[in-house]
Design a protein that fits this description.
The chain is about 55% helix and about 5% strand. By secondary structure, the protein is of the alpha+beta class. The two termini are about 30 Å apart. Bound molecules: 2-acetamido-2-deoxy-beta-D-glucopyranose.
Length: about 220
């Protein structure tokens, strides 16, 4: 039975799960959850994700929420090496940079994505530029750290590509397609690394789904 992902591909957390499914070549089904009409707060969805957020995930009897946990499950089930599970220190570095992605990169990008994409396109409101600027400052401070790391190491966790690199793609997708993409110009190693991540076949495929979902 195909694994099921509940939520729109345009959501960064949903996109991260989808890219892992693509990485392992799994069969999956995306079940739309119309967030504009509050379907993510419906009893049926809350039964799968008690926080009423996306994604929720189902594989047979197993129901999961929290996108990075779902991503790890999919990669382990599919026998992928993107978590470096066979090497304790390498897998620890993958975990470190996954936390950095969540807290610092996507953490700064999420309010920017909300203000620059969700508010004007889905809520018919006005972007709060103060919030955008505040988070651009945070993003740039993080990019300083990325630049230092990536000038010494090919990828974040080491000289191997891992989930910690790929998990940046959904927020990077919005950064690159928005009006603040030029912030990357000051960080050539980080910019080149993002370009390489965006060029993975799995990422290209899910980027197309995101484009369609947010059109
Ligand atoms: C684990 O990875 C580290 C860093 O890449 C490497 O130096 C070490 O030899 C590896 N250990 C094993 C047991 O493969």
């Amino acid at each position: 039975m195909a694994m099921k992902v509940y939520g729109p591909a345009a959501s960064t957390n949903v996109a991260c799960v989808l890219v892992c499914l693509e990485e392992v070549g799994a069969e999956y089904e995306v079940v739309p959850v119309d967030m504009t009409t509050g379907k993510h707060k419906s009893p049926a969805h809350v039964a799968c994700n008690p926080f009423g957020q996306v994604p929720a995930f189902q594989d047979g009897d197993l129901i999961l929420f929290e996108s990075r946990a779902i991503s790890k499950y999919i990669l382990r089930k599919g026998g992928s090496d993107l978590l470096r599970d066979s090497n304790l220190s390498e897998s620890a570095m993958v975990d470190v940079w996954l936390e950095v992605e969540s807290g610092h990169f996507t953490g700064a990008m999420s309010p920017i994505i909300f203000e620059c994409f969700v508010v004007p396109n889905f809520l018919r409101g006005q972007t709060n530029n103060e919030i955008v600027q505040e988070n651009l400052v945070k993003l740039k401070a993080s990019l300083e750290v990325y630049e230092a790391r990536l000038s010494k190491s090919k990828y974040l966790a080491g000289d191997f590509v891992s989930l910690a690199d790929i998990s940046h793609f959904p927020a990077a997708y919005y950064l690159l397609s928005g009006s603040h993409a030029s912030v990357l110009d000051a960080y050539p190693h980080a910019k080149g690394w993002i370009a390489e991540v965006m060029n993975r076949p799995s990422v290209k495929k899910v980027s197309e789904l995101m484009k369609m979902a947010s059109a």
